[in-house]
Amino acid sequence: GLRSQRKRLGLSATDYGTLLGVTAQSIYNWERELASPRTEQLSRLAHRGSCLHRARAQHADPAYPWEKRRA
Q1: Are 29 and 35 within 8 A, CB to CB?
Q2: What distance in Å separates the CA atoms of residue 65 and residue 1, rounded to the nearest whole number?
Q3: How many Cβ atoms from other residues are within 10 Å of residue 17's Cβ?
Q4: Are residues 54 and 26 in contact, defined by beta-carbon separation less than 8 angstroms?
Q5: What's the CA gap between 7 and 4, in Å, rounded?
Q6: In the chain, pLDDT over 90 holds for what percent of residues?
């Protein structure tokens, strides 16, 4: 689910929400299935999720997937 994906990426609900343009409360509500993301949010979720997974795989900072991690 969404929570396991967020945890696997090592992101707090606040950080994940910031990346998606929503509040941490929205993230918590989605994770508990108290609310559902809107279509535009689902699109961002899918896009950001895939970008973050690729960044993690390349050892980049998950908060800045376009930058390589500094040594």
Answers
A1: yes
A2: 21
A3: 19
A4: no
A5: 5
A6: 30
Question: Length of the chain in residues, anyone?
Answer: 71
Compute how many other C-beta atoms are within 10 angstroms of the C-beta atom of residue 63.
Answer: 14
For residue 60, count CB atoms less than 10 angstroms from its CB and return exposed for 0-12, middle for 13-18, buried for 19 or more.
Answer: middle
Based on the number of CB atoms within 10 Å of its own CB, is 36 exposed (0-12), middle (13-18) or buried (19 or more)? exposed
Is the pLDDT confidence value at 43 over 70?
A: yes
- Spatial neighbors of 60 by CB under 8 A, at least 6 apart, are 66, 67, 68, 69
Of 27, 65, 64, nearest to 45 (Cα)? 27
Q: pTM of the entire structure?
A: 0.65
